[in-house]
Write a structure and sequence with these properties.
Radius of gyration: 23 Å
Strand content: under 5%
Number of domains: 1
CATH class: Mainly Alpha
Number of strands: 0
Order of helices and strands: HHHHHHHHHHH
Distance between the termini: 47 Å
Number of helices: 11
CATH architecture: Orthogonal Bundle
Structural class: mainly alpha
Amino acid sequence: MKAKTADRIAISVIVGIAVLIIAVLASLLGYLLIRGLSHVSWHFLTSAPENIKAGGGIGPQLFNSLFLLVLTMLITIPLGLGAGIYMSEYAKANRLTNFIRLIVEVLSSFPSIVVGLFGFLVFVNLFEMKYSLMAGALALTVFNLPLMVRITEQSLRGVPREQKEAGLALGLSKWKTISSIMLPVAFPTIVTGTILAAGRVFGEAAALLFTAGMSSPRLDFTNWNPFSQTSPLNPMRPAETLAVHIWKINSEGLAPDAPEIAAGASAVLILIVLLFNFGSRWLGRVIYRKFTATK
């Protein structure tokens, strides 16, 4: 077989596989969105299930998902940044460092259900947090922390070595070089990775079944006392998130319009995850252009 013929065949196979994958993803997303968006309305997004006669509404679940996301990222971002900076700039190249990197890689590939069981044993039972948003946030921190560490480490390692050496040559301390030279250059990539990690948190369900719970108290959105059990700002209350709600309403089938509720909630969840992905790319490009002064 001639080289040009083999090259055309290889290109055709690769293009065909790419088109097949895109077609499958587009058809899946199109089916879910077309089926679900017809059931989405402002009332559906803001009302509680018990406030609608047919059993619909995802208002509390949507709020719980956003609140859980904020709690998780408030814990994950400082720990991930600190660990990533240490692994990239301070840790020596030895067996211990290699072992830590191996552990990070293993944790990043753990099934979420295993992380949920760990959270149930440690946070819910051992620390007696019971089913709560905080227990769910800590479990998702364990789930997301390896990704955040790797993103930060790889972003800092991607900074040109000359820039780091120039800062040290000017007499800057190591931390000043990292904070003033390396982090601004790596910041766009870190932001992109952080938003993608946030999207993973928003769509997670398995780990939350064992930590945040599958039910929520009736929330009073006029009560902003974080110590009250009915306050939406109480991090120690059980909370059913949007992803868990989709699983629960499909498995129980108690609501008369369960398929419509699940379809609408799935469409909302997909749109939010897509917004996270597109938003991370857009924000990363904007920040990169700002730091590099490119158009």
